[in-house]
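Follow-up to my post from last week.
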Amino acid sequence: MDQDKKVIATEAMKALSEIEDSMKTESLVKDNKIEFSFEDIKYRIRKPNFDETVEIEEAKRKKYVEYIKDDSYMFRKQWIDSYKKKGIDVEQMEKQATNAKLEMEQIMLRLATSQEPRTIQELKSQILKLKDEQYSVSMQITDLLTYSIEDQMNMYSTSYLAFLVFEKQVVDKWEKVFTNYKEFINSSTKPVHMALYYISFLMYS
Amino acid sequence: MIESLRNLAKSTKYLNLYARAKELSGIRLFNNESDFSYMQTLFMSYLETYSSVYMDLAMKEENISQEVIEDDIRLESYLLWKRLVKDKKKSDKSDKQTVSENALIFKRK
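User reply:
Got it. Predicted complex:
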């Protein structure tokens, strides 16, 4: 009897968790703004308006010039060449990821037309293995090239965008949380981390 | 998050809303009518995908079943097969029409 109660309780918790998850996801798609609360303050991030888009492009252009002038910053290609001299072949790793993807697609085509349960399970597990391999190699490449000018520019433009569209509710109005980018980037509060997390849900990278 | 989005897109509630929103102009899926976010665009593409596979299921198309729809890997495989094999077969079928010389307005001299 106790065991039955435990099973029912576990199932109920799982169902509640699924409902909560569904409601949270719904709140992220229902609007093109994302609101969240922290310590009784309501925050939001939204899509940038035209003026803000122009401001982001100008900030990116200035940052890009900074990176170009600084010899310690290298482009992706330069990093790849440097790694090759140290025996790390990033291009080969990229080929490995592509080959895993192509092999996976061939197995997926076989899975699509399979009816036999054992074959289906076997093909699914082969696909999962290849997905893991592809993901693992992609993560390695990302880590190796994270300091490239291209990746640094991506991070800069995401964080600058987050600074521009990050607002808090003051009485009935929405106001910018930070007056300048330096203040935003030097703040390591939870709302800032949440803003940086949610910005990727609003914008295409 | 992507998995949650897919689960939401294949829910009865949103598939029905999506079908009604396509038919009736007064029904909206989102608070905003334009300037959609990345999540909203992704969600719409999942809605379209699930709506399309349920249509395939209703039409008794080959290689699709409720079991396939509920299994993300099998569903992805089905969609890939549909795109590369099934739809390619349809477009390869020859619809060439030849026009006889008599039908030409500007005939060669």
